Amino acid sequence: VDVILKTTASEYWSYVKAGAEAYSKDNPDVKVEVKGATSETAYDEQQNMIETDLNSGAYDAFVIAPLQADLVKTLIAGQTAPIVAVDTNIDAPEVLSFVGTGNEDAAAEGGKAAVEAAKAAGWTDIKCIEIAGVQGDSTNTARMNGYKKGVTEAGGTFLDAEVQYADAVADKAVASMEAIMQNHPEGIAIICANNDDMAMAAARAAKGNAAYAKTVFLGFDGIQSACTAILNGGLTMSVAQQGYDMGYKSVDAVVKALKGETLEKFIDSGAEVVDKNNAQKRLDTLKGYLA
Question: Bridge partners of 237?
Fold first, then answer.
């Protein structure tokens, strides 16, 4: 089984990789090979990986986390080997199942929790600005829609016109946060981000600004560094994806397909909101995955 991830150069993706490899340990007759691009914007690199592997004849089945789903849809056209999408769906008939987080529903839960936390912190005018990932990425869009839904339903205001795109990287999130502070010297109740790295970077950028002392910083992924930041006050909360389960379940699904089983179109790997109450438990679990 060939597993091609968006990247292998981040903590979150190391859990997906660990889960996929764990399946092979539990099922020694299944050989799993995991690879990924050097970053989430290394589009050509991932395209080359996919093209090379699809044409190599070396694999019975594929698990793909696409950087550009529309491009990958074209690359896999006509493939007969079982293909499962992980983390981000690929809208193609060749893809038998999508294993991942229900991103919109998960982000909505995070948005609601953030509004409640903002109320508890004393905010009365609850506005939310998102520091987003890569514009046009379907996962990013789903999370944005979820944040907006959750914040709005809980009585807050999601500022659509002020979304800052930071390409899912921390240094650009710092610049985004600096722009937000310049535009809103009075402070903003909630800053939500498309991943934890950006949320933590934004929180660091705002440190020392009195108007942002009670701002709720909400991330997404629930990685170790985020759990640690939640415990030490550097981040308020995160929507935790179950990356390890995602990796494990995606390989399990593609192996079932090889055995002739029919797969569910969507296999939900689950999510939970992590805050000070459960961050330590989550941290211990994550450390166990990479031990």
Answer: 218
Residue 88 CB neighbour total at 10 angstroms: 22
CA 281 from chain centre, in angstroms, equals 20
pTM: 0.82
CA-CA-CA-CA torsion sign (35, 84, 283, 238): positive
pLDDT tens-digit series, residues 31-79: 999 999 999 889 999 999 999 999 999 999 999 999 999 999 999 999 9
CB 221 within 8 A of CB 246: no
Q: Give the DSSP per-residue string, 4-42.
A: EEEESSSHHHHHHHHHHHHHHHH-TTS--EEEEESSTT-
Q: Angle 279-289/224-232 helices, nearest 10 degrees?
A: 150
- As a whole number of angstroms, the distance between CA 83 and CA 93 comes to 10
**Tokens encoding 218:** 């909400």
Cα separation of 251 and 24, whole Å?
Answer: 9
